[in-house]
Amino acid sequence: MIAGSVALFVLSTAGLAQGVRSLGMGGLVLPGPAASYLNPAYAAFPSLYGSDQGLRLPIGLLGLLRGEANPLRFFYDRAGFASPNGGFDALTFYDQFTHLGEFLINPASSNAFVNPATGYPEINLEYSASGVQLTDYLGRPINLSLSLGQPTGVRSSGALTPAPLFSIPFGLGGGFYGDVGLFAGGFGLGVAPDANLRRAIASGRLDPDTDYALTGSASGQAGISLGFGFATALPSLPIPEFGTANIYVGARGEAFYGLGYFEGSGRAIFRTDGSGLPNQAPQFESTLFYSYPGAGFGFGIRADGGVALESQGIAAGLGVRNLLGLASWSGTQIAVARDGTSTTSSSSRGGPVFAPAFFLNAAARQALEVGEVVYGADLGYDGRFTTHIGGEYILGPGRVRAGLGWEDGLKFGLGAGFSGAGFLADAALTTHQAPIVGGTVFGIALSIGFSF
């Protein structure tokens, strides 16, 4: 049995979607019981390729102590907190806070757009009769192919809940099992031009009597989930000239009770006149929807299914979450119109949905003359595509890992681990795309475990 040395590590990290071993292989998820959240059939699958047994340390908390990411400076160093140079940077805080399992070496920073004359970030929307463009403070065009974040609310994710921060599994016998967990996620920041503005920037031409808008958006949700599932092995299937294939099937249902949900957007809009010239200063409008117990109600259910096969050390599986579901959040919506007037009303998000999320992965384990190697690949779709390929070389208690992946941008991983009598440790160097400003952020992740 593997246990952690500090209970906080369990609460903070046990439910992270990718463990340190996975990060070291570029984010690869191998077939096995640890992937049963993505494919219920894996709940009955043997652990052929090992798993992330150690507890991932929340070393990102150390990153929140650095000056530009530390919100606590507001209470003991307000002058430094508000300083235009070296003060608190909300983008750095957001990037580190959403990656608490990693210490980010170069987190996202709004300094990419800081005007030295003022010390504050500036993004300018410039337009004239000759065209329109987004620029920094020097008038340099901003590349719109940046990674701009991905807010994921009910509208985009259907009845899917984020992966749990932590969960407590329990067996019910006869192939039945259950789990209860706390989830918080779906966090996203987005900045994007609308179709008209993107087209105008590409062509350098403004059309007459047309609205152009730059939209910012954000979302997040949290709640308690309760799942029940069943998984079993079917009779083996002989395959001519290949051998015998072991087949596993599984199904899982999940219900959740919402603890909080928010979804907001804001738009900066300008309109051209009949000659294609901007006829007024930009106008602004925004919408915010929020729900929490006492000021709304959130609940949902969904059904998942999956199948997996294994033969001669080679395995593959297909899981489908949200085959059918329902997600409903009732709460309050605040809308601010272009003329500055605001309205507050009761509103809701969600409803019956069919928004399936697919996950396919495969792996193999092969003995070498010295040591052995595990390698595999995966492909997922939950409103966006993700894919990873990676491997691990095992020699005695030592492990070396590497891999590549795509998650809203290219990422790679390098890792190493040790698994000895009574102790195991893993480390990984991983990357992700910086929100809003783009670019590659490097992070270091660690995990430890003890056997009793």
Would you kindly provide a written description of the structure presented here, covering whatever features stand out?
This protein has helices at 7-13, 20-24, 60-63, 73-76, 78-81, 90-97, 154-157, 195-203; strands at residues 2-3, 55-56, 103-104, 114-115, 120-121, 124-128, 131-135, 164-173, 176-193, 211-239, 243-271, 283-291, 297-311, 314-336, 342-353, 357-367, 372-381, 385-395, 398-407, 410-420, 423-433, 440-451. It is globular. The model is unreliable at 1-16 and 145-149 (pLDDT under 50). The chain is mostly beta strands. The longest helix is centred in the middle third of the chain and has 9 residues, at 195-203. It starts with a strand and ends with a strand.
The biggest sheet amounts to: 18 strands, antiparallel
How many angstroms separate the termini?
6 Å
- Determine the number of helices (DSSP H or I, runs of at least 4 residues): 8
Radius of gyration: 25 Å
Q: What is the chain-wise order of helices and strands?
A: EHHEHHHHEEEEEHEEHEEEEEEEEEEEEE
Indicate the proportion of strand residues: over 45%
Shape: globular
Going by helix content, strand content and strand pairing, the class is mainly beta
Poorly predicted runs: 1-16, 145-149
Look at the structure and give the mean pLDDT: 83
Share in helix: under 10%
Q: What is the number of beta strands?
A: 22
